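Re: the request from the purification team.
They wanted to know what the chain is likely to look like in 3D before they choose a buffer screen. I agreed to run a prediction and write the result into the notebook, where they can find it.
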Amino acid sequence: MAPIAWKGIIAAYGEFLPPLATKVTLHEGGTPLVPSSWLEGRLGRPVWLKLEGSNPTCSFKDRGMTVAVSQAAGDGARGVICASTGNTAASAAAYAARAGLSCSILLPAGAVARGKLVQAVAHGARVLTVEGEFEEILGMAVKMAAEEGYALVNSLNPFRLEGQATASYEICDALGRAPAAVVLPVGNGGNITACWMGFLRYHAAGRITSRPRMIGVQAEGANPLVRGSPVVRPETVASAIRIGRPASWKGAVEAVEASGGRFLQVSDEEILGAQRALAAEGVFVEPASAAAAAGALHLQGAGLPDGDIVCILTGHGLKDPDAVRMAEPWV
């Protein structure tokens, strides 16, 4: 039997991660970087899709969770806890199960996609639905973590960001350079913060000679970073980025400003249109991921330096199957 080459991000990028006494992994990372003929045709330059839906629980959250849960297990935590709009819940539940830890999840009532809730339940998490906005529920999770001796595994946990930075390393390793721009959806702001941190580290280590511009995409109904102030009762079909007050607000702004990038917004109609266009070339993503592709179309004539554009597509389409019905007709 041939050896298994890929063993997860801790094995692949341990030199850039904190030392971990315990390693809890599902061999996450190593996700494909595939060209998009649709976006290349519209933008006139190579556009690559980083398919984070290929991770074990079908979203980018697994990168941060392998590091955060490894640290929690090594610290002897009783369990893990998080507030979530869905993907964090699914990932936390899976990695807690892998580590033999209990997992408690707080979800905003009626605001989590079915595919993500099913995953959390299947992995044995204790799921509590709470009335209120995500920011309030996150505050409850922080308090419960302190009271119960659980490790909080939201993006407030710095180990989460350490793991998520590995997407940047993979992009540079696959291309042999840094792209001109990286476009990604922004909800809580942790991923754009982490990815920029990753590019900074690779640049400082001499692995790349330039750094990309970071383009953060928000939905029109959940656009606090575009408007510069919190949004009360955010609304969008893209449930993963339906957040009105990002927990990593400062880090997200620093990533965009330091890189010479920008925040932009797209409508729900643009999001669902991009979801259909990606599906037509074989890539099925949840609406939040499609927001990145919709946002990339706004970069036409934006004065970016020559080079590739990478869209980070954060989650698989089966994460939010109900969105497909909303987008009919598909055939």
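For the purification team: The chain has a mean pLDDT of 93.
Please add any questions underneath this entry.
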